[in-house]
Amino acid sequence: MSIVVRPATVYEDVATMVGPKNPASSVCFCLSYRIPSKENIALKGPQRGERVRRLIDEEGPIGVLAYDGDEVVGWAGVAPRTRTHFATFRKIPHVDDQDAWSVWCFRVRPGHRKKGIMHALVDGAVEFARDQGAPVLEGYPVDNGGEKVDLTMAYVGTRRLFEQAGFVKAADTGSVLSGFPRVLMRLEL
């Protein structure tokens, strides 16, 4: 298996990774951290996918996608922190005045897990942010101390995953997910 990570510009591949199986469903599409809460709640069914399509049209890549050959197998949301909910989210502190970028959501398709795709996604997010001129990249994973994380809550990654990619803990946060505290991890680019 040879995993290649590329900027997320192909709507259909983004939809494969973060869109619901039922297009009429009003879930995910990785919008909760990207758009204002009221707008996120108001978007129903196909409107959610159309909003993602508009984000791609307006901003270009909205994250990175991992491919095994031609098959999309992974996703990571990556953007300037100022374009995310983290810009104003009080539970995740601002460490300094640098124009930080955030990587906040990971997804690996069933059947492709436990093959290093999360590591490839973190590395791809770093490369993407660096190529876009980001001075620093932040992640907000759970600090699970090696304990198992519920699969539905593992989307933020773990402290160990980020440490293995060279990130260092910069701050504690007031956020808790699945019973684990989240920490702010940073990598100077």
From TrEMBL:
SUPFAM superfamilies listed in its UniProt record: Acyl-CoA N-acyltransferases (Nat) (SSF55729)
Recorded superkingdom: Bacteria
UniProt-listed InterPro entries: Acyl_CoA_acyltransferase, GNAT_dom
Any Pfam family hit: Acetyltransf_1
Record domain N-acetyltransferase: where: 3-189
Descriptive protein name: GNAT family N-acetyltransferase
Species of origin: Microbacterium ureisolvens
